[in-house]
Structure formats: C-alpha cells, structure tokens
Specification:
4 helices, Arc Repressor Mutant, subunit A, alpha+beta, elongated, 53% helix, 111 residues
C-alpha cells in the first residue's frame, strides 16, 4: 500500500514512542502493527530517518542489536513527541474528512 506524503514520518515517530529501535525494527513494527498492510522499503525508511534526525525529532546512537550486531538505534526526542501530537491531530482531521466524503457506498441512485 502506498503511503501519503508525510505519513511515513508520522508512523516512524509513533513507532518510536514505544521504545528505541533500529531501522529494521522500525520497519518490522510498522508492518506488524498494520497487519502486514504496510511494507516500508528501506530506500524510503532511511532517508526518512535522516530527515527526522536533522529536524531534531529523533536522535540516533550506535549499539548492539538483539542479534549481536552493531546497529543504529533511533529514539524519539521531546521535540519529536510534540511533533507526533501535532501530526496525530492533523491525521485525525484528515481521516474524519475523508470518512465524510467516502461514507457508505449505496446504489448511487440507480435502483
């Protein structure tokens, strides 16, 4: 499923609320929490992580992963938490607006 512009950033921030994760862990968490509907390509994820880090919404630190490999772990910052709350509010408004337009599909007056 394709993501709307900016949605990936929000999903990454939301995923990091739970705990610091490395890139593969973030991708896996998004996939799992979406019921396998969202598959994040690494070619999209890593530029998003760099962008979020540059904005100060996440920080990164090298550590050893659960598979005993060196990995960069990302953590949500206080600024990132504030941004997530802003994005969540905008997303709720967006979902509500689209829901009003889509509504239930009737017969379109063709009966």
């Amino acid at each position: 499923m394709d993501l709307l512009q900016g949605t990936l950033d929000m999903l990454v921030l939301r995923t990091l609320v739970l705990a610091p994760l490395h890139g593969y862990g973030i991708s896996k968490a998004i996939r799992n929490h979406s019921g396998d509907a969202l598959e994040i390509e690494f070619g999209s994820l890593y530029p998003a992580l760099k962008r979020l880090e540059a904005k100060g919404w996440i920080s990164a630190k090298w550590a050893i992963s659960e598979h005993n490999r060196r990995a960069k772990f990302y953590r949500l910052t206080a600024a990132g938490r504030k941004q997530l709350y802003r994005e969540h509010s905008k997303w709720a408004d967006f979902v509500s607006a689209v829901g009003q337009i889509m509504g239930p599909i009737g017969d379109g007056g063709k009966s």
